[in-house]
């Protein structure tokens, strides 16, 4: 079976780019090991919590960020790190050729209940600076810490899935992921309905109307509350994920972050034949203005994303 190192050699001749990805994969292995034993260590995942000895604990978000930082510090090819957990970008190596943007622990509100969380990352050419459109990404990926630990990766071509084996080796388990064109599942936080815009309300109403409604088919709703888990399900069996702009998030530009949540996920989903949009334009075409910029996120099965786009075109 193909492993990660062998696969990377088929995707790029640039050994330093492959090395940057391997550094993030190694950080994922270490974060996974910490998460696996976190309840034994008394790590509840809550910032400022105490362990069984009554000692103050660092939040797992901070620990995960430190692990990423340690791995990237060891790699001279990394110039700058942008992280959800760090207000400012961190300079790592002056000669570094790549910038990395990461959400070191996504879905951390799920930690206390042992539900899948993840690490998301995007790799950019350092020469282009920090604020580059998603189309400029050199590679992107995420690690999903679930029943199995999965690494989902795309350099320029297809999106592939690797599974961590008992010996710590990433084994390729999906060669070219394909998000089904059509689907009967949508993922949105419906508790926010009162804040939604007309397009979101229209799309969801049409979907829940079922076989006799305008969509002409029955839908199911799924919402893990951990983007990595929701996107992984969509990547493997289709569906659509929506965190649209709503009246409560409009002043911030949305909920999810462009550089280390929306862009890498859009890159991976599009590499698997899916689509992504803010509702008004492709996520990968959004010009970033700040490292922690937020953006509306709609992505998944192409047919469903097109239905949402049609609602935005009308609204
Ligand atoms: O609290 P809500 O509205 O369900 O939002 C859930 C979303 O927020 C996030 O948890 C944000 O990510 P972080 O956990 O990294 O802050 C996403 O993973 C998830 O899709
Ligand atoms: Mg996140
Ligand atoms: Mg996070």
TrEMBL record:
Catalytic activities: beta-D-fructose 1,6-bisphosphate + H2O = beta-D-fructose 6-phosphate + phosphate
A GO term from the CC aspect: cytosol
GO biological process, one term: gluconeogenesis
Pfam families the UniProt entry points to: FBPase, FBPase_C
Similarity annotation: Belongs to the FBPase class 1 family.
Signal sequence range: none
Organism phylogeny: Bacteria, Pseudomonadati, Pseudomonadota, Alphaproteobacteria, Hyphomicrobiales
Enzyme Commission number(s): 3.1.3.11
Database matches in PANTHER family: FRUCTOSE-1,6-BISPHOSPHATASE-RELATED, SEDOHEPTULOSE-1,7-BISPHOSPHATASE, CHLOROPLASTIC
Name of the molecule in the record: Fructose-1,6-bisphosphatase class 1
UniProt binding sites for Mg(2+) 2: 103, 106, 261
Record note on quaternary structure: Homotetramer.
Residue ranges occupied by any Fructose-1-6-bisphosphatase class I N-terminal domain in the UniProt entry: 16-171
Transmembrane residue ranges: none
Cofactor comment text: Binds 2 magnesium ions per subunit.
Alphabetically ordered keywords of this record: Carbohydrate metabolism, Cytoplasm, Hydrolase, Magnesium, Metal-binding
Primary enzyme class: hydrolase
Domain of life: Bacteria
Entry binding sites for substrate: 106-109, 189
Segments forming domain Fructose-1-6-bisphosphatase class 1 C-terminal: 179-312
Sample GO molecular function, one term: magnesium ion binding
Subcellular location: Cytoplasm
